[in-house]
Amino acid sequence: MGAVEEINGGVMDAKERYKSGVIPYAKMGYWDAHYEPKDTDVIAMFRITPQEGVDAIEAAAAVAGESSTATWTVVWTDRLTACDVYRAKAYRVDAVPGTGAGTGKEAQYFGYIAYDLDLFEPGSIANLTASIIGNVFGFKAVKALRLEDMRIPVAYLKTFQGPATGIVVERERLDKFGRPLLGATTKPKLGLSGRNYGRVVYEGLKGGLDFMKDDENINSQPFMHWRDRFLYCMEAVNKASAATGEVKGHYLNITAGTMEEMYERAEFAKSLGSVIIMIDLVIGYTAIQSMAKWARKNDMILHLHRAGNSTYSRQKNHGMSFRVICKWMRMAGVDHIHAGTVVGKLEGDPNMIKGYYDTLRENHTPVNLENGLFFEQDWASLNRVMPVASGGIHAGQMHQLITYLGEDVVLQFGGGTIGHPMGIQAGATANRVALEAMIFARNEGRDIWNEGPAILQNAARWCKPLQAALDTWKDISFNYASTDTADFVPTATASA
Amino acid sequence: MRLTQGQFSFLPDLSDEQITAQIAYGLKQGWALNVEYTDDPHPRNTYWEMWGIPMFDLKDPAGILMEINECRSTYPRHYVRVTAFDSSRGWETPRMSFLVNRPAEEPGFGLIRQETAGRTVSYTVRSYSADRPEGSRYA
With a cut of 0.90, is the ipTM above it? Predict the structure, then answer.
């Protein structure tokens, strides 16, 4: 790999430059190999697959142009503006390892593009994304395009509220420290009446979970309207709290067709004393930011289900990386986001997921190509987001989950709780015992990666529900190759 | 009932040796250990009584265990918890919290339901132990 040679850049005389007609983007000023990004610049890194015959630098310049000021032809009105400032500048193009001539894979390039801060409205994800992913992904000169990473300058971050609550305050409010939180999604996700639904919530919480959860598509349907769900769930939450002496919660999904309906549902959740509400990614960036402001104002934890993300984040050549979604959602202000399990049923390469989790939880992340982090990022004291691991995980994987994901995470065992042979309470207890035993052992200095199964077996000797869980799911694992993997690991996985 | 607050309430009650190992972990992270006790473990009762101030300068797990044991022998029928405070930037909050003592009989909590407009219920969790004056609970 190495920087692609500059072949068609270069400065033109102004009179020549603004003559009517069409000239290459690189020549219009959207390519500058000598540009040094300012600390206040927004930087985006795209994986570019140019059309046959389109030069990589011209393709990168075109992306810069189409995501900032350019149109397809020269316009004299540029000369009424400080257009040099407003033009995004592609300043670096690298060949993607394992692609191009001799690899059997079509050539891809990493193109780095810098944008002046004044191109963006303060505090608006909608505005940021209207530029960065607005028109450019349909642009004909590129066969495929993927937004891999962004560096958000501190100056821009400071115009965003960030997570309404954050990991630190969430833990203080819940009075839960030093271990992952435990949750489960109510199953079946569709069809239960409010009364039956609340039963599942109560059993899970009383058995030892901290949270139960609505699923992404449970809103207000003929079998259960939202007010009914909220009322029964809060009965379950409060009853479980009294039974255990712990703060408990249920993520009440307030996703609805209009903002007015979402506010109404959020207000009702608040009036019932819920500590947490939930939204889906599909409601859109502006709606998410609005709910984050509402959550901050109303002392509410805001859970985000990433419904829809895989439609554009999973394939490696087109769309955007989930790490960029993580960045935008931390700026937009959610407190929880589903970010992968590594070991469960949904897509997730360990290195990639480490990158997502660091992006959500750390105050500063250095460049780490193995984990897909192409930029150093200072989070400017925006609160930490709690990642949520959900989908096909069970108690027998506890040592793997804690090794991969750490302790600031919500582990959600839906089927792994509700599908327990001795019942939902027993399923919840099995998970809680496995969790506490593993954190306890880790703190004692034991090697949980290798001793994990023995630690679980030992706890199962006095905890029958855990024994039953281990027996039921002992052979369950989801070993499929990931599609979204690092380009920079020594053991390959070049390009999908 | 069994109060399940703290990191390890689903495990069997901890031995002195096990408590020492957990303290050693907290000290190794650079956290300050603190002992607190209460006779009202309501889930929203944040401020348990402090057994002295956090032991910022005590780095010996055995010394901290001594403080725990003194607290336990003074208040054998109270809940006693150990909390580890992290002063590092961006955290500045407890990072561990676990129970090291609980009364033999745990009366638990009642749930008071106040029925209000529509089908809405206003809930209050009430500690049965708080029926008696402070200090004479669990007598």
Answer: yes
